[in-house]
From TrEMBL:
Organism ancestry: Eukaryota, Metazoa, Chordata, Craniata, Vertebrata
PANTHER family hit by this protein: UPF0193 PROTEIN EVG1
Name of this protein: EVG1 protein
Pfam families according to UniProt: UPF0193 (PF05250)
Organism the protein comes from: Halcyon senegalensis
Amino acid sequence: AMMEESKLTCFQRRYLMDCVKRGTTLPLQCHPTSSKEPAPAAPAFSPPVCQPRRLSAKPHLRPAKVCQAGDAYTREKFKPRARRDLEKEKQRLQNILATGKDVVEHKVKQTLVQTKEEETPEPDRFEELVNEVQERREFLAEMEALGHGKKYQSIILTEISQKMREMEIIDKKRTEDMREIVTKDFPDGNKSDPHL
């Protein structure tokens, strides 16, 4: 039906039907009166046909001496790795068979955890608060430089005042602790100052 609508000649119809029967691709152009195969014209939109590369008559093989002179025939030298301690492995197996648990690993893990905990000192909350206040001031300065200072000013100033209040509480506690230490060391204290 499509052939009739396209107003193809009888020759063009026969040629297309023959292509379909053979299972080949349909031609892009079919000349109306010629019975010979048209020379294929490479259209701009079709992918280029991959042509096999012609091999030169002279082979490009490397001689054996060149191959042997390189690193192709050298083997990597064997490098022994650290061996396991067989006595420790025996003890470990005995522990597993006797108790059902690997006792040695647990001790090692516990000692590692304890040393890690001992190494990290407790961070000073007062210093943390000082750093947090400084970060908020820097953030507010950046926002003001970008033109968004009014948007964040009230929030940041509120947070800074909260941090300052917490710092005051910590400072009062430290002062009271210092007073207690001083009064223990010097029970008479300072009689001239009634506030101490």
